[in-house]
Amino acid sequence: MADGWCTDTGESVYRSRDAVKNLRIRVRIQRVTSTAALSQHLHQQVLSQQDRGVIELDTFSSQTQAASTSSLEYASDAEELVVGWQEKFFSQYEVDLYQTESNCQTPLERQYHTEIMAMERSKRRQNQRIFTYTDFDRFSKWEEQAQSLLIPAQSTPTFLAERMANVRHRRQERRPVESVVPKSRLITWEPSEEFIKNSHIINTPVQTMHIMGDLGPSGKLGLKENEYILCTIKADGNGVITIKPDFNNNRGAYRLETQGEKREVWRLYLENASSDIHAEEKEREQRMYRDLYTRHKDYLNSLVGQDFEMPPPGILRLIVNGEIVSAQGYEYDNLYVHFFLDLPNNWSSVPFHGLSGVTQTCRTSSVGKDVAFFSYPFSFETFFHKEDESDGSLPQWPVLYFKVLSLDFWQRYRTEGYGFLVIPSTPGYHRMTCRTWRPLQSGTVAELRRFFIGGAPELEDISYVRVPGTFKGKRLSRFGFRTQTTGSVTFTLNCIQHARAFIDASTLKKRRQTVLDQLGGHSQQGSVYNVLEAFQRARNRMQEARETLPRDLINTSAQLNSESSA
């Protein structure tokens, strides 16, 4: 603040839960010139002389005429108006323009013509200098930048600001936009700087309103060059309201200086004139919100259901939501993974639910090591039901078998490695890295064939990576089978176990806790005291035993010595 003026003309952002239609702003402008100051001084001098009653007749008449003239000028140099959100107040230019019906082309302009004619007939015009441009009027940000008073040194707008101005200007014209979807190159892998600039547009739907002022001479209102922006209000659907400049809030007035030969200075005051909500309305609004939230909660509960879906008794439901994160350490590029889930005995899956899958082909990225990031999600849902309850053996868990392959330029694949992953028996989040290997043929010819024409030794049964399911013997011999260690594959698993037995166990545990809680306080204290007393007696007995043990040993050794000497 300098010399009583408020120099902070930046915008302020508010967030309101109330409807923006309840916003009211009191705007007051006042001319600060030598003529206005002299008129105000003469008016005060006349009032003081009238109070003293010592004034001549001709002086009184002349000063009264001067005071009346100056009062009219002072009244025309100051104006105050309360403006609501998107409330239309017409300027003198619009009144002169829309009075002629032939100048009205659009439905909005014809509506303005009807309102102006009704206002002229009733002679109830509230404003002279202060008027508004609503969101429906053709007033773009180009005019706002050209007619802004509160920024003395006009800065060059940024590229993003110009693009945003064009976006809003197109939205104001309400012209249909024909969207053209490119049929090729949906993804630009190497965007240029010009492409980035043209694509970096934030098109958030925002409503804008401008409070304007006609700061021309008293007898020359209605000229476009004398229109200046006093305040700009923006609001979006999220309750965010932006006001530029901010309310004065007991600070000095904003300084407005017109352009041209007569540089006149004006004061601008902005005040929040929105009425406070009454206690009854506030309570009614809170009840409405509570009722709305309750209904929304009931609606969500109706979608989910009151009863939690439970598997049949004696069945364990296992849900695995996993992801093949990455693969690294392999010889060739363009990797993909083929996997399937093997279910042991007593396990089953949902009908028509696939238990296998293939990832996309992924190129390696040189970040420390050559890593191929797949981020491929998969999901399995299986059920375990033990038919023979007398069998006391532990159940076997499903196994995820996978093999890593590479693709060359001629669309020929090579086997890069085999691996397996046993589904964890504990629920929760698991991150696991599995090492892989591949069969190896001796000799240089096999490596040349693998490099030039693709192909490599493969396993007929991928379960041979572990113990094959068809193997019934006691020992599995792999003597003479040559392999080579390759890379590794990283998995993340989120395992969920669902069974009715879990609910029964937790219910039984709660019942036990309830029985213990129902015991009286004196009985619990008595049991604790008895336990402590028993520990004390046992401790005393052990102490006595330690003290008597050496004496017995001494007596026994003395008797043995006497018997040996005899």
Automatic annotation (TrEMBL):
Signal peptide: none annotated. One of its GO terms (biological process) is cilium assembly. Keywords: Cell projection, Cilium biogenesis/degradation, Cytoplasm, Cytoskeleton. Its main location: cytoplasm. It is found in: Cytoplasm, Cytoskeleton, Cilium basal body. The keyword Cytoplasm applies. GO terms for cellular component: MKS complex. InterPro entries: C2_B9-type_dom (IPR010796). PROSITE patterns: C2_B9 (PS51381). This is MKS transition zone complex subunit 1. It comes from Cyprinus carpio carpio.
